[in-house]
């Protein structure tokens, strides 16, 4: 098994390990340029970065969903629980405990919330009793879904659909979830509620999370560790609280700094201050 530079000899292998992956779309567009990251078991790791940085591509590479999008992994490897998994199908990965919640809340709009949740158990051959228990567990963590169980998903709020998408992933009893932009288009109060539930699942069910987010502020408050992706490369990584208090991160991703508010779109200033790329 390969080990990474950050690993000490006695440290347990990371639960999920992405090693130097390179991804090309349509045979020509290089979007990931050697991305490496690790998720230890039982942790929440945030993958941060602006729109187009490569967060979704990284998640889809891990869950092997990239093949359906004319994307090719041209370099690197992915290991989950100490084994190489990049040749598996998404279904095989789900059976091994790794599920993805895609960006944009993929629920079936014409099905009820409960029917949506039941579709999440498709990879498992389980008894009716187990199915009922799995549903009750989802409803325990997402009481809003219980209230809305008979509503057609397409008519529920954005927050409820996001909860439904996470609940659906939970039905496969994953030990790790890749969660893509759960805050997107959702009211701040509901975002907090969703992240609170993620933290709860992490603590009580020991589910590990790799969380892609443009919302750096909220992600760093709930994550243990973070990576910042820019233009297909990891440009910074660290403990969540260290990143949250880092001046550059504050300036470019949190929109505040000791010098006042700055936008990272102010490119001239951005280049000058971006010491971590030098
Ligand atoms: N299916 C695709 N075909 C071609 N280019 C793509 C495809 N999906 C994403 N891209 C490009 O890859 C880059 C990274 O996209 P993405 O991984 O979606 O970033 P993020 O999730 O951080 O917003 C962007 O420049 C985007 O336009
Ligand atoms: Mg994305």
Keywords:
278 residues; alpha/beta; six-stranded mixed β-sheet; four-stranded antiparallel β-sheet; globular; disordered N terminus; binds adenosine-5'-diphosphate; binds magnesium ion; BCAA_Transport_ATP-bd_LivF; cell membrane; AAA+_ATPase
Topology:
Elements: E1 16-25, E2 29-39, E3 44-48, H1 55-62, E4 71-80, E5 83-84, H2 90-96, E6 98-101, H3 113-119, H4 128-141, H5 143-147, H6 158-170, E7 176-180, H7 188-205, E8 208-213, H8 216-222, E9 225-230, E10 233-239, H9 240-245, H10 247-252, H11 267-273
Helix pairs in contact: 3-6
Give the biggest beta sheet: 6 strands, mixed
- Widest β-sheet, arrangement of strands: 6-7-8-3-9-10
**Which ligands are bound?**
adenosine-5'-diphosphate, magnesium ion
Helix content: 25-40%
- The count of DSSP E runs of length 2 or more, i.e. the number of strands, is 10
C-alpha Rg (nearest Å):
19 Å
**What is the number of independent domains?**
2
CATH H level, superfamily name of the largest domain: P-loop containing nucleotide triphosphate hydrolases
CATH architecture of the largest domain: 3-Layer(aba) Sandwich
**Beta-strand percent range:** 15-25%
Give the class-level CATH name of the largest domain: Alpha Beta
Keywords: Amino-acid transport, ATP-binding, Cell membrane, Membrane, Nucleotide-binding, Transport
Family: Belongs to the ABC transporter superfamily.
Domain ABC transporter: 16-256
GO biological process, one term: L-amino acid transport
Describe the structure.
By secondary structure, the protein is of the alpha/beta class. The protein has two domains: 16-240, Rossmann fold (3-Layer(aba) Sandwich), CATH 3.40.50.300; 246-278, no CATH class. It is 35% helix and 24% strand. The chain has eleven helices and ten strands. The protein has helices spanning 55-62, 90-96, 113-119, 128-141, 143-147, 158-170, 188-205, 216-222, 240-245, 247-252, 267-273, and strands at residues 16-25, 29-39, 44-48, 71-80, 83-84, 98-101, 176-180, 208-213, 225-230, 233-239. The protein has a six-stranded mixed beta sheet with strand order 6-7-8-3-9-10, sandwiched between helices. A hairpin with a 2-residue loop joins strand 4 and strand 5. Helix 3 packs parallel to helix 6. The longest helix is centred in the last third of the chain and has 18 residues, at 188-205. Residues 1-5 and 260-269 have low confidence and may be disordered. It binds adenosine-5'-diphosphate and magnesium ion.
